[in-house]
Amino acid sequence: MDDETLIILTYIKNAPNREKVLLAFRNEDVFRPSQISKKLNFHKNTVSKNLKDLREHDLVYIINPEYHVPRLYRLTEKGKKILTLLDDS
Question: CB-based contacts of 32: which residues, under 8 Å, 6+ apart?
Fold first, then answer.
């Protein structure tokens, strides 16, 4: 495992909510924050903050950035790789 991947994996595992939000994408291609909120029983603000963190680390991206609501999120290739590693651990 390369250093960058190890750093990102550690970053995700050190924040249980962040890890849960990323793991929510396990069997889904696209999510709205409200869907993640319902699925995980998290407050919408918690989901939004964690999605922002994941976006800043290039793990998810917004499909429709020109729209404020509803934003649609999808995993990046990097996010898919990290998700696979989380599933394997």
Answer: 70, 71, 72, 73
Report the percentage of the chain scoring pLDDT > 90: 91
Q: How confident is the model at residue 59 (pLDDT cuts 50, 70, 90)?
A: very high
CA dihedral angle for residue 46, residue 75, residue 65, residue 41, rounded to 10 degrees: -30
How large is the C-alpha radius of gyration of the chain?
A: 12
Q: In sequence order, what are the residues at sequence separation of 6 or more whose Cβ sits closer than 8 angstroms to the Cβ of residue 83?
A: 22, 23, 25, 26, 75
Strand, coil or helix: what is 25? coil
Q: What share of the chain is helix, strand, coil (3-state, %, to 5)?
A: 60, 10, 35
Calculate helix-pair angle for 44-56, 33-40, nearest 10 degrees.
Answer: 120
pTM here is 0.92
